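Continuing the batch. This is chain 6 of the set; chains 1 through 5 are on the previous pages. Same settings as before, nothing changed between runs. Recording input and output for traceability.
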Amino acid sequence: MGNDIFLRMSNQDINRHDIIKRLLRAEINGTAAAALLSLSVRQTKRLKARVRKQGARGLIHLNRGRLSHNRLPERRRQRIVDLVSRCYLDFTPTLAAEKLAANHGLDHDPKTIRTIMIEAKVWAVRSKRNKEQHRSWRQRRAALGELVQFDGSYEHWFEERGGELCLLAAIDDATGKIMHAGLAEHEGVFPVFAFWEEYLGKHGKPMAIYLDKFSTYKMSQKAAVDNHDLLTQFQRAMSELRIETIPAHSPQAKGRVERLFGTLQDRLIKELRLANINDIETANKFLSEKFIPAFNAKFAVAPSSDNNLHRPLSIKETKQLSAILSRQSERVVHNDYTVSFKNQWYQLLKDQPVTICRKDTITVEERRDGAILFRLRGKYLRCRHLPTRPTKVPPAKQPWVLAATAAGITRRPAANHPWRLRMRANILQHQLAQV
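Output for chain 6:
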């Protein structure tokens, strides 16, 4: 028996060969051999007969090395390889299988496409990741809108057709649905507030939002220098809307939205490339009308409860939404009833809906449309923008001081002036101390 036979044999075949050889040498009986092989006595007898007749070759399965009867014809396999190489070279096997079925009528299991791609060397088997720190599994929330995970992901979503942009996305914890997503220049206060204004208009208010601390990573975009106060502004706005905010202490805590971005960085980039989309406006329209509905239909799961816990905005909240979703800060009224904000000066007018005093602390609202509004005790103040900073006026001198200065007269204190008397007493005390 040649060594090439053993090279073709599996570990199980080699183990079986050793046991059958012992059976042939009468070292063990058929019952003991069957127990060692975990086979029936009848099957053990068949293997014994095949080994006696063919040797070790009789233990090799007869279908080993043969092509499967279910194997795709070579012509179809070659067509799949050509399409993948030409159109979907960087696609994963699962996504490539979806596109082949949708665009070319080649509906096959992703595992079949994966095998073909590996054999054609257009897909490399990925090595398994090292085991990470153990984290316990958290059960999904029960109902839609009970908890929404929100985050932003910076990536070249248009590849070489555009620069780095931020994809803002909110995913429901109970269903895994993408509730809303959109591309923005950066993850600053105003893009985030614009995102949530659209979300609230579509779905209403969720019970809670699971979000990043925002300060846990360094921003590389110059336009996102206001990111340090995003968490504070966002928490303040959501508190006014009675929405609970839960800051995550690690990316793994909000793993659902983190895994979503991993999927979107694979799928969405390729979908935008196939649709030849190169700008934010068209991409956001594509997201809302095509990509998100198809994504949710494929990946969303049924919640354990059929309730929708989103709450509609009240009439008062709807009217005040622009004010709530604005960047707010506080300023102090100066003695001349002026207010400074971002190196700009504003004069408060005399006629106001509320009484204003010097040193009052007022709230400044910076709206997304660029408007600057001042609010005190719930009332908006009237003001006008000053082109330059107000100049300080020196205190006016008394008329007698002006007249004496003009006449060249120098006023000197009298001999009995308290200041002179006090000075003489100090000098006398000093002289007595030296005696």
